[in-house]
């Protein structure tokens, strides 16, 4: 049973560019959440997708956008990259209505902005 | 607004010694509390969680945590650490609705180093 998979694992971009990160949820899960983890910090909630719509959003600018596909996989897009966007981006999946509240995390995509 | 404070940035413990990692939270309602562990280059793995009931919860890898409402704390403990426990530990709080896990607020983490 595959867990949460993310791609790419590492990437380097320059300021002003755009990036797309991808996530496949754990088998059977229908909800995907994205978190940003800056160096030395805890993860911060970006947004959550369910039924192909953004269900909740954290305190991130509109440069951060996402998408969920019918197969529940998801993309995170960041436009006009800033140096401060350098971070580990974590995807987490869960099952709607699961009262255990457990999130399953992928290993992340490490983005470096030069 | 919800928040989590982990006052210890870095803790060093001898192998076989006991461990306690501190976590204090601020939350407007009944908190749902979690401890996650992150090894280098890895994602987050759930160690344990508290929703309600018994305030002492058991988790994986021999870890336990105690919820103390009066102190707004949820400290993680282990009676005897192993070298493989070296990692970053995160405490988190979040709402769990009928929908499920909505979002988590994490602390800044405590890095655990184990010395022989």
Q: Could you explain the architecture of this structure?
A:
The complex is a heterodimer of chains A (114) and B (116). By secondary structure, chain A is mostly beta strands. Chain A contains no helices and eleven strands. In chain A, the strands form two sheets. In chain A, strands 2, 4, 5, 6, 9, 10 and 11 form a seven-stranded mixed sheet that branches. In chain A, a hairpin with a 2-residue loop joins strand 5 and strand 6. The model of chain A has no long low-confidence stretch (mean pLDDT 94). By secondary structure, chain B is an all-beta fold. Chain B is built from no helices and twelve strands. The chains are: A mainly beta (114), B mainly beta (116). The interface between A and B is medium-sized, with 30 and 28 residues.
Q: Assign an overall shape of chain A.
A: globular
| Helical residue percent band of chain B | under 10%
Calculate the mean pLDDT score of chain A and round it: 94
**pLDDT under 50 segments of chain A (min length 5)?**
none
What best-fitting shape of chain B do the alpha-carbon axes yield? globular
Q: First CA to last CA of chain A: what distance?
A: 37 Å
Our Rg estimate of chain B from Cα atoms comes to 14 Å
The helix content of chain A is under 10%
Counting helices, strands and paired strands, the structural category of chain A is mainly beta
* H/E element sequence of chain B: EEEEEEEEEEEE
Largest sheet of chain B: 6 strands, mixed
Model regions low in confidence, pLDDT < 50 over at least 5 residues of chain B: none
Interface with most residues? A-B, 30 and 28 residues
How are the SSEs ordered, and which strands pair?
The complex is a heterodimer of chains A (114) and B (116).
Chain A: E1 5-7, E2 10-13, E3 19-24, E4 31-37, E5 44-50, E6 53-57, E7 64-68, E8 74-78, E9 87-94, E10 104-105, E11 109-113
Parallel strand pairs in A: 2-11
Antiparallel strand pairs in A: 1-3, 3-8, 4-5, 4-9, 5-6, 7-8, 9-10, 9-11
Chain B: E1 3-5, E2 10-14, E3 19-21, E4 24-26, E5 32-38, E6 44-50, E7 56-58, E8 64-68, E9 73-78, E10 87-94, E11 105-106, E12 110-115
Parallel strand pairs in B: 2-12
Antiparallel strand pairs in B: 1-4, 3-9, 5-6, 5-10, 7-8, 8-9, 10-11, 10-12
